[in-house]
Amino acid sequence: MIITSTSNEQIKRIVKLREKSKERKAEGLFVVEGIRIFKEIPAMDIDSVFVSESFVENNIDVEPKDITDNKYDNIPDLFNRVDYTVVADNVFKKLSDTVTPQGVLAVVRMQDYTLEEMLDARDKDSSCIVVLDKIQDPGNLGTIIRTGEGAGITGVVMSSDTVDLYNPKVIRSTMGSIFRVPCVVVDDLANAVETIKSSGVKTYAAHLDGKDISTVDLADDRAFLIGNEANGLSEEIANEADEKIKIPMEGEVESLNAAVATAILIYR
Predict the structure, then answer these.
(1) Bridge partners of 205?
(2) Is the pTM of this model over 0.85?
(3) Start-to-end CA span in the chain (Å)
(4) DSSP 99-148
(5) Distance between CA atoms of 100 and 29, rounded to whole angstroms?
(6) Beta sheet of 155-159, edge-to-edge order
(7) What is the spatial distance between Cα 106 and Cα 163, in angstroms, rounded to a whole number?
(8) pLDDT digit string, tens, across residues 87-98
(9) How far does Cα 38 stand from its chain's mean position?
(10) For the chain, N or C: smaller number of CB within 10 Å?
(11) 174-186: per-residue pLDDT in tens?
């Protein structure tokens, strides 16, 4: 059976999940698009899968390819392991958030981490938590999560007024790291920082009035507090930190992109 109408209830549901944060939160679901990130989704987290008619013709209904070291390189084999619904190409374009859809879309269950679980699971000898205050750019948030995985961070804690973690642009920017990096959204960020500190983590606020990071002997069990792209950390959150630090810069540059600054700090 192929879905051929954009008025189909399943199609309308996916469009709502893609476009509206409120719908995502209400259902505890979000949308993932593209074959590369689809391969990263833990099977237990998949709610449903939709593929375009042309994707089936070009990638699934073909002779199986030789299995390589990466088991997911074999697309027919991959889709033999999951149930999926076929959608007409014109309908899939309605679902897609991209100009040139790849033809694969999944509805995925949200992860459910708590701050306490993140703190309990950390390695106190090499812990690094990233705390985000009102980050607004989806690309920045996604890049921070992806870079954080590369640097081996413990997890990300963010204020509820940070851009929606499950915004399609955030998900796309993480390149799959969203499924492996614990992320926690909190209503009271100041209280969350206090909880982090009380567990023994030393907190560092990225701040223009801070010490040169190259002169600071960072604790092994640490958290970096990163602020909004335009205004930096709020004074309330900055004042919660044990210490304020800054990245030294030449020329007339006053600050760096939030994702770039985070990358420098976590790799430092």
Answers:
(1) 225, 244
(2) yes
(3) 54
(4) SS--SEEEEEEPP---HHHHHHHS-TTSEEEEEESS---HHHHHHHHHHH
(5) 24
(6) 183-186, 155-159, 127-132, 221-226, 202-212, 243-246
(7) 21
(8) 999 999 999 988
(9) 14
(10) N
(11) 999 999 999 999 9
Q: Which residue's entry shows tokens 């800054």?
A: 246
The model's pLDDT over 134-161, given as tens digits with 9 standing for 90+, comes to 999 999 999 999 999 999 999 999 999 9
What is the C-alpha to C-alpha distance for residues 108 and 195, in angstroms, rounded to an integer? Answer: 30
Residues 76, 228: Cα–Cα separation, whole Å: 44
What's the token pair of residue 133? 């205050």
Confidence of residue 69 (pLDDT cuts 50, 70, 90): very low
Strands 85-87 and 46-52: parallel
d(CA 31, CA 79): 18
- From 97, 110, 91, 108, select the one nearest 51 (Cα to Cα): 91
Name the β-bridge partners of 3: 87
Is pLDDT larger for residue 62 or for residue 213? 213
Q: In whole angstroms, how far apart are CA 147 and each of 156, 167, 262?
A: 11, 18, 9
Q: What is the pLDDT of residues 229-247, one digit of tens each?
A: 888 999 999 999 999 999 9
Residue 204 and residue 247 in contact, taking contact as beta carbons nearer than 8 Å: no
Angle at 76 between CA 75 and CA 77, to 5 degrees: 90
DSSP state of 43: G
Dist. CA 255–CA 204, nearest whole Å: 17
186, 159 contact by CB (below 8 A)? yes
Q: How far apart are CA 205 and CA 189, in angstroms?
A: 13
Which tokens belong to 207?
């701040």
